[in-house]
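Worked example 2:
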Amino acid sequence: MTQSGRKAEKRDRIMAALRARITAGELLPGSRMPSRAVLVREFASTPTTVQAAINRLIAERLVVTQPRVGTFVSADATSLRTYGVVFAGFPLNQPPDNTFLSMLASTCAAQQALGARLTLYFGVTGHADEPDYQRLRDDLRAHRLAGVIFTDFTTQWLTQALWALFPAPGVAFTSFESAFPVLHTDDAVFFTRAVEYLHGRDCRRLAVISSRADATIAGFVPLLASYNMELPPHARLCHLTVASQADFFDPVRKYAYLLARDPALRPDAMILWDDSYLDYALDGLTMAGLRPGDDIEIVAHCNFPLARPTAWPIQRLGYPVPHFLTRAIELLDRQRDGDDCPPASFIDPLFEEEYLRQVERTSLTRATQRRQSPPRVPAPPAGAR
């Protein structure tokens, strides 16, 4: 190895050691960095190499230098609180709807506008020529991220090679096995809460339209028996796949229509386990002459806060999309702090009225905090005594 190569290797080793102390909290934001002389002795290096390492940390905004005062850990070390969010597609460029990924992307963009330190990566499918894959790689290499959130199960597998080179805390939104802690919804809790509600409305014959596999829905039949409810095979339309919008939604409309037209098959309750099905299922039911809310009770999945108005009364049960972002960041911080992090965490489903009460409590808490905050005293004009 050449002399310049050895110096670069020593510089990188010093830089990595100091960065690790900062990210682990050994050197706190705002605290003074060890002097150059101390670092020269500790790493058996030269002042030039130590300064080169410090300069790299300054470029990463982990360290700041104040002339004639000293060098300090940045009080605003952005890489300690900047989180990456990786999407396989481009949900912000799609027509607005109630799907989880489009709402998550919109939530992230809104939080960015409010000052949240989120870096979004779109179209990441593991190919090295993708612009945002390259940007993610460069940000990981430069240690600009406190952790990365994978929004579906594909992206976290497609970037494994990247993680082997630049490890960082990660969270994946998936129900599948993952190299990272996962954050997901619990199907059993959702279905049980929906069934409890429908049972309370004296419903006995259930139909389900779902993107889940038929075997998953069939697994809940014993639960239904304990509530004296039934879900026959003909009343399950499951595992729908998307070929096109028409191919996807037309079967929902036709299925709801045919099911409702036949008195022998007609259910008195329906669970719509995907936001996208709602309008089409209601269309099919009303075409068959049923009045949702009167002739049939409906529990529809919802990604809050977007609950589109409908012409018929329905009960919404779902998940506040901002909760996924908040919980994911909590899991990333636990990993960075060295705390125990469960391999799987779940977001609890809420009925619409529960969600609205939660929003109201949060709004009241924030309003109270603002009222209790001391008023800001304006600074005196320049030159005033």
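The longest helix spans residues 3-23. The chain has a mean pLDDT of 83.
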